[in-house]
Structures are given as structure tokens and as C-alpha cells.
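Model it.
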Amino acid sequence: MDSTRNLKVGQVVSSKNGRDAFKVFVILEVIDEKYVLIANGSNRTLANPKKKKVNHLNIYKKVFDQIESKECGKYQFNDAYIRRILQPYEKIEFEKQEVSINE
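Modeled.
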């Protein structure tokens, strides 16, 4: 996928390459046809998101609609909230990383 046409704000993605390889993020903004802003709440916060090319991302089907509306029910919309919702996906990416290292 080289286009942002099918991507949505709040969609879960992971990085393919670089120093942030196998890390999980959520899309905060679709900038144009090739770039999105992503954050994970720890090293890439809401205040300092990363601009990333779409073809450097693995795309998950899961979309957190509350990211776009910034309404999280009883929780505050902050970096801790982002870390909390991404936690299950980090375990999946960690397992993928272990498999690729052992091959």
C-alpha cells in the first residue's frame, strides 16, 4: 500500500524498518497521499508525532474512532491513553520480531 486512501485517523500501524522497527503506533493525521503522523505515547508523543511514509508501515485493520473525536469516555486523551490502547498490539509485534530473529 503506497497511498493513504484507505487509512483512517485512529488506525493501528507498525513500523517496518529503521530504529523504530516493530514498534506499534496509531495514526493521528493523514497529511497527504504518502505521509501520515503517528504516535505511540512513549517516545513519539501527541506533542511530538513522527511523520512517516505509508510504504514504511504495516497496516492493521483496527481503528480507534475515539482518536479522531478525542473523546475517551472516562479516560483523558493523553499519551498514557495511547500507550494503554496499543499495549495488546505491542505483544504481537514483539512475537513477530522474535520469530524473524530466530529464522
